[in-house]
Amino acid sequence: MRVNKAIRRFASSLPVVDVSAFQKDPNGVSRDHIQQADALKNAFTNQGFALLEGHGMTTEAMDEVIDATRTFFNQSDDYKQQYNMKGYRGYQRVGVNITKHRKDAHEGIDYYKEAPETVTGVLSTHTNQWPDTPANFRPAIETYINHLMVTGDAVMAAISRGLDVHPDVIKKWMKDPFWILRAISYPPASKREVGGDWGEGCGEHTDYGFLTFLLTDGTDNALEVQTLDGHWLPVCDIPKGTFIINIGDMLSHLTGGLYRATPHRVKSTALQRVSVPFFFEPSWDAVITPLPGIAVSSHAQETFSGGRHYGDHLTSKVLSNFG
After folding, report:
1. What is the DSSP-derived secondary structure letter of residue 172?
2. Is 99 helix (H, G, I), strand (E, B) or coil?
3. CA separation, residue 32 to residues 13, 24, 44, 54, 55 (Å)
């Protein structure tokens, strides 16, 4: 796949990574498996972000997710507020989500895996809320979730291969992988509040778990990624049919900082922007410890030492997002 020159504004190149070999056979040892695993390792070591192809989801299914999401958000406030957040699951109007003590200029509807046998605390008190309209919203989203759970396994298998780690080593933290989905609408810059305690469309942050698969409507100059030298660069001209993929705190911790949980943010643009990030996570009760022999420096060894409980980490982040 050819990458548009505009994409090269991000750290010279936002790598295109193909995982089709692992999608077909997560345990394969072909040349394609080796090449794809190495490409993924290079992307996550240097940028923490990549464009993902070979994931097996059709562009028609991806378009349906975006179209259904846009239709939901373009309905009346009275309708959307029927699904207001309960137990952190459900709809939030613009400004409810907080990043670093500033209001984010987006509205969203949040979903978490329903796993009452393992999930504890604030995320265990309610179930997900599904709007009746549009009628295809729930089936499109559930198809999307089911597909990306398979793709998440494939990418984690590629990560194991790239790190020269037996897949069973990482699988012990994925016995019952958790997931999160956010459907998000960013209003046009001309229709949002500014100043005071308002921040960006979404303020600077890193993601929390293992992997993020980001599906967007293709709006340019919205998502910005921080480079190693601290500059903010926009991601533009995303090829149709690809996901943006990046890693979260738990995968960075697992690799002793070798893989970067890269800070990113979303700027308001002239147009409404719709995106649907899916977060592929460790098991709720997983305690993530760095793989032996991978930490990249003595500073990294100190920073990434010890175990981090995924469920506790996620809960602390959710609470801070709505504080």
Report:
1. T
2. strand
3. 21, 11, 18, 12, 14
| Per-residue 3-state assignment (H helix, E strand, C coil) for 237-305 | CCCCCCEEEEECHHHHHHCCCCCCCCCEEECCCCCCEEEEEEEEEEECCCEECCCCCCCCCHHHHHHCC
pLDDT tens-digit readout, 134-164: 999 999 999 999 999 999 999 999 999 999 9
- Residues pairing with 91 in the sheet: 84, 109
The per-residue pLDDT for 125 is 86
Classify residue 132 by burial, with Cβ atoms within 10 Å: 0-12, 13-18, 19+.
Answer: exposed
In the chain, the amino acid numbered 156 is M
What is the chain's mean pLDDT, rounded? Answer: 90
- Digit-coded pLDDT (tens) for 204-224: 999 999 999 999 999 988 999
Query: What is the per-residue pLDDT for 195?
Result: 83
Q: Is the dihedral of CA 210, 214, 87, 128 positive or negative?
A: negative
pLDDT tops 70 at residue 198: yes
Provide the residue type at 285 as one letter: D
Which one-letter amino acid corresponds to residue 38? D
Percent of the chain with pLDDT over 90: 75
pTM across the whole model: 0.93
3-state helix/strand/coil string of 46-71:
HCCEEEEECCCCCHHHHHHHHHHHHH
38 sits in which H/E element: helix 31-46
Give the CA-trace dihedral at 90, 95, 282, 214, to 10 degrees. 100
Q: Judging by DSSP bridges, how do beta strands 16-18 and 49-53 pair with one another?
A: parallel
State phi, psi for 285 to the nearest 5 degrees: -95, 10
Q: Is the peptide bond prior to 134 cis by the omega test (within 30 degrees of 0)?
A: yes
